[in-house]
Amino acid sequence: MTTVEQTSSVRPARRAAVTNPGHGDIFTDHMFSMLWSPAEGWHQPEFGQLQNLSIHPGMIGLHYGQVAFEGLKAHRRADGSMVVFRPREHARRFQTSTSRLAMPELPTDIFMSAVNQLVAADQEWLSDHPAHSLYLRPLMFATDESLMLRPSENYRFLLMAFVAGGFFGDRVDTVSVLISRDYCRAIPGGTGNVKVAGNYAPSFVAQRQAQEAGCHQVVWLDAIERRWVEEMGGMNLFFVRSTGTGNEVVTPQLTGSLLPGVTRDALLTMAERLGYRTREERISVEQWRQECAEGTISEVFACGTAAVVTPVGTVRDPAGGDWTVGDGLPGPVTMTLRRTLMDLHHGLARDTEGWLHPVPTEQ
Ligand code: COI
């Protein structure tokens, strides 16, 4: 396997240059690549410079969407070391996603080795800014040159990285959401519960509608009854209910059409540890509106690798008007969970669950 050393002379310039990274535009220097074929299985691992690919225009992945990906993050701890948040869970979900598209599974040890190499080589892209991280993007796609409608026989796995700031900017502010009444994201038996490229392009028109309505994001309802809240564009949702006996943190249950978020799962555990009751249950859009009016639902937030924990302040429903969540500002439970998660990422809290993978510095 080829490894490419990064020279120390470029490091300070890179770190200084990345003051406002946004999300997805500032790629780091390297990538990992590996091929799969029926005869050789996983073979030809290569680690080298990030570079353009040469592909056949009739590649199956391009035409029929046999493409799956993941998203996970590496963080810098206060002591300067790098950690990756729950990479093995992301490797497992990647296996579930690729299997759903009749693609081979990438063994977890290959996934981990690629993550270790890339983070070790490109860590100097990351500044000490608490809202910045290295976002790692594993990708697998079908490479057969054929337009026959069949699964490819050959595949390529890539791992690349970009410097990520906050998905909605580096300041924490509430976001506004539009309930999508024209489109739905996932159907029972479809691919809503896996991370495949084909789930994302169809969301763009709904996302555009949200922006035209003055909202940051779209909220998806279930495809059958069109009333059960499922996800927010590419993120899971949580509701905070104030009850007589304390706060309850509620998230839509995984019915098979929602993505089982790794951050969602972590927040359920963290909320319990913080003394909040947690529930996974169906929540209808009528309930959301009514419980906000009554003051029972006092906070709502989105979560995900990209979103971390992002408070939702206002809701626009073309079928039912607009409403505000709580006072429209980031709420205390949301901010406590956000702080707890970010402290864990940055080594300021004890990793009681073993969720942080320390990246070996020598590869
Ligand atoms: C992530 O949170 O990592 C995602 O993949 C969603 C992103 C594409 C918005």
UniProtKB/TrEMBL annotation:
InterPro entries: Aminotrans_IV, Aminotrans_IV_CS, Aminotransferase-like, B_amino_transII, BCAT-like_C, BCAT-like_N, BCAT_family. One of its GO terms (molecular function) is branched-chain-amino-acid transaminase activity. Signal peptide: none annotated. Its cofactor is pyridoxal 5'-phosphate. Keywords: Amino-acid biosynthesis, Aminotransferase, Branched-chain amino acid biosynthesis, Pyridoxal phosphate, Transferase. Residues 1-10 have a biased composition (Polar residues). Coiled coil: none annotated. Pathway: Amino-acid biosynthesis; L-valine biosynthesis; L-valine from pyruvate: step 4/4; Amino-acid biosynthesis; L-leucine biosynthesis; L-leucine from 3-methyl-2-oxobutanoate: step 4/4; Amino-acid biosynthesis; L-isoleucine biosynthesis; L-isoleucine from 2-oxobutanoate: step 4/4. SUPFAM superfamilies: D-aminoacid aminotransferase-like PLP-dependent enzymes (SSF56752). It catalyses: L-isoleucine + 2-oxoglutarate = (S)-3-methyl-2-oxopentanoate + L-glutamate; L-valine + 2-oxoglutarate = 3-methyl-2-oxobutanoate + L-glutamate; L-leucine + 2-oxoglutarate = 4-methyl-2-oxopentanoate + L-glutamate. Its EC number is 2.6.1.42. It is an enzyme of class 2 (transferase). Residues 1-22 are annotated as: Disordered. Belongs to the class-IV pyridoxal-phosphate-dependent aminotransferase family. PANTHER family: BRANCHED-CHAIN-AMINO-ACID AMINOTRANSFERASE, SUBGROUP IIII AMINOTRANSFERASE. This is Branched-chain-amino-acid aminotransferase.
